[in-house]
Amino acid sequence: MWYESVGKRGSSEIGSCLMRFIDLKVHEGTREFSFYSDNCAGQNRNKCIFSTYSLLAQKHNIVIRHTFLEKGHTQTEGDSMHSVIERASKLIPLFTPDQWYTLVRTAKRSKPYVVTEMGKEDFFDLKALAKDTILNWDRDVENEKVSINKIRILEATFRFPNKILFKYDYNEPFRTIDLLTKGRRTIDVDLKNIQLKQCYKGAIPISKKSSNS
């Protein structure tokens, strides 16, 4: 969780949260990850998230798979969590971000939610990462045009560096995108040694509407 002056809610912020979660779980011994989400292009289905997966797969020698749920069938445990938090928030007045953190931690008694408080130093510019590490996003290795909006399953694996595997249908074989090759052009990128840039140097101004609400 974070509040409005710390970060926005775009692909860089969502990707930074995924990065922090994966780094933690790798430290605990996890080698394979499976994520499920809706099809929101601004937060989930975009080059920033996919380049982040490619980076982490090589950095940690892991496998990351992301499944996009069918439209109209995207309800997940996250929706249930939001409902629990919303009901709890109606019972007490809330005035500061810290109170929201406490509310979420205590909203579910049987199995409390774990809250990670994100600071501005935790958010990285993943749009810059995608720009620096992706040359090709238009054609697969068979020179077929890639339709990003139709991808159902995506996978980044240490076994295929700088490549993204994807499926349009859950039951078909994986297709492959070579991120570093476009036609006769190729770039050389060492993801294990790339330096990430931070998103924000200072606090984000809060809008007048938010400050008065």
Automatic annotation (TrEMBL):
One Pfam family it belongs to: DUF7869
Protein name in the entry: DUF7869 domain-containing protein
The DUF7869 domain, residue ranges: 37-135
Source species, domain of life: Eukaryota
